[in-house]
Amino acid sequence: MTAQIAIMNKLAIALATDSAVTLTTSNGEKIYNSANKLFALSKHHPVGIMVYGNAEFMEIPWETLIKVYRSKLKDKQFDTLFEYSTSFIEFLETNCLAYFSEEQQDLYVIRVIDEIFNDISLSIKKEIEKEVERTKAEKNKIINSIIDGFYRKWKAEEFLPNFNHNSSKKVLNDYDDYISRLLEKHFDEIPLNKSCIKKLKMTSSWLMMKFIFNDISTGVVFAGFGSNELFPAICSYNFEGVINNKLKYILHGRKEIDHNYTASILPFAQSEMVYTFIEGIDPDLNLAFNDRLEQIFDFYPEIIIGELLDDIDERIKGTLKENLIEASRSIYTSYLQHMRQFQRENYIDPILDIVEKLPLEELGNMAESLINLTSFKRRMTRDAETVGGPIDVAIISKGDGFIWLKRKHYFQSELNQHYFRNLD
After folding, report:
1. What is the pTM of this model?
2. Per residue in 13-41, pLDDT tens?
3. Whose C-alpha in 105, 139, 158, 341 is 20 to 30 A from the C-alpha of 95?
4. Rounded distance, CA 163 to CA 68, Å?
């Protein structure tokens, strides 16, 4: 994992990232604190790019792909930041055949379907094992119900860009042998009728083309200015793989500074400490409070009705219960609205008011401090130290372009002057 942040106002956008990377090997996981995740997307224009999550895309380092794109981009510029992001996507799609072999694509598809079938089979086994003594008919009912649930859910979802029903049919046709083998692997102890097999095959193709698996995907953040943009903007995507020479990705979000939206703090990946700083409470703790309070508000009408005298008519009790439940939910909704407003007025807005006026260097200092805060929290808890190492910080402004405030190097500067000359 990692921690990254973008902070922007009308003047500029600050980007900061840690250097931790988790490598998975046959002997377990190893964390290194030397990864590069922040880059200038153009040597000539004010645009940057950050990556988090998987350090490679289809077994090619993101750093390599970004720098190849940058060399091809040269001094070309686009009117908006969003056009830079779509240009980068077009670069990947144009080179699918050249960069991502059919073998790599096959391995990716098999890996994803293997994960899908594993999750579904575990769901079935877990439900069946809740009760030891189940009849064959009961087990079959559970199997059919769970598979049908997955089938209906993913049938209703929209396809990701680049994919449609024809893409799904092509995957089912091209990978039918692989899918059949994976069905045998994961459902060897689960009796499946023809309907269940058909639904599982369809579900696997839909999930592959309608869902991003975060554990194997990469977040890619584009930030900066298009040539026609006075204020900074940011676009974030999730990229996962390539299927039949088509890129699997989704636009995660877009933010643009304007006269109404004058400041923004956008954390990526491990973001809990940033939200704690901005909102005044840890997001998990806040969720636990609200969930528990909702349970209390749902439960107390039952207690009140239970305390009523036995000689009160049951119909009257039922009406009272309905009225209490309605009132309880209204009070809970009002509480949430009040707390959100309190949070906004006393925590979020005061910080954004300061961010709106920050000069360039202070934007960078704030970004670095929030990454340090996340790293410190990881170091002081039982969690793995998946945030750490040197922090890279860059400022992108309309006038000065992409400027490094802090940047690590794996080499000694004085021995590699040619590297710096080549940056000119």
Report:
1. 0.89
2. 999 998 877 665 556 666 677 789 999 99
3. 158
4. 26
